[in-house]
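Hey, resending since the last one bounced:
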Amino acid sequence: MAAPNAKVEVVIEHAAASIGEGPHWDEKDNKLLYVDILDNKVHRLDVETKAQETVVLDGYASLIVPSSKGGYIVSSLRKLCHLDWDTQTVTDLHEVPVVGTEDRFNDGKCDPMGRLWAGTMGYESTPGQPEIGKGSLFLLNKGQLSTKVSPVSISNGLAWSHDKTIMYYIDSIPRVVYAYDYDNATGDITNQRVAVDFNRWSIAEVGLPDGMTIDMDGKLWVAGYLSSKVMQFDPTNGALLRSITVPGIRTTSCCFGGKDYSELYVTSARQGWTEEEFRTKDPQAGSLFRITGLGAKGGPANIYCAE
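The structure tokens again:
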């Protein structure tokens, strides 16, 4: 199940001071977008020159997706906003109500029609231990925000099958990747079932399912939080096909990028370690990694199609 030809390298050491998340390859600019959640930062990185631009938001930033009309859709704590990068102007679009102590947006992606799916999670008094059942998965479509899945505990990775008939979705606490029948025309989802059950393995082996992407063969790549791994699964039978170890224990998400989408970019988190633990157990925590030589490719990520 290993990937003997895979090469893992550090792109930006300690790229995130808290939780690196939400990687998105921006095909228009050939740059990698990602966030540092608890530092309220969204980043735009040229992976070749390492030149990086940063915008600081007012609240926790967990997603950044390009908009078809320019700028980006970002999250700021419980708000979805439009960000004009050049002027750093942030325009609020929607805010979800407080459900728990301090719930917040956690991850989000656009579907093939350009609708934004964005989920929330409960307050974490300890990393990985949120208030249970305080989150939901929302859909932003034509300016309207609706609830699609509730309750969830840590709303996380999203992906769609290439024939646009299945949506995959992660709730990290039950350690499950769900599959839904997906109607591309309407955005309706039905028939929830388990595509990958992480409970088949221990947390030490595979961690908690976190961020996710899909390759051109329809296989899912999932970051295993607490496992130091990114893993490829077959969603038709839940089998673990390959795993790649990265030098960051708290792997959080991944996306394909590069000129031919053969490079897998992996974010990680530093949050949760003491300074001593950081130095001795996970000195690359928070770094941004790149994996090449996988023999797998992704495709362009969906962007938000503004109404």
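The chain has a mean pLDDT of 96.

Sorry for the duplicate.
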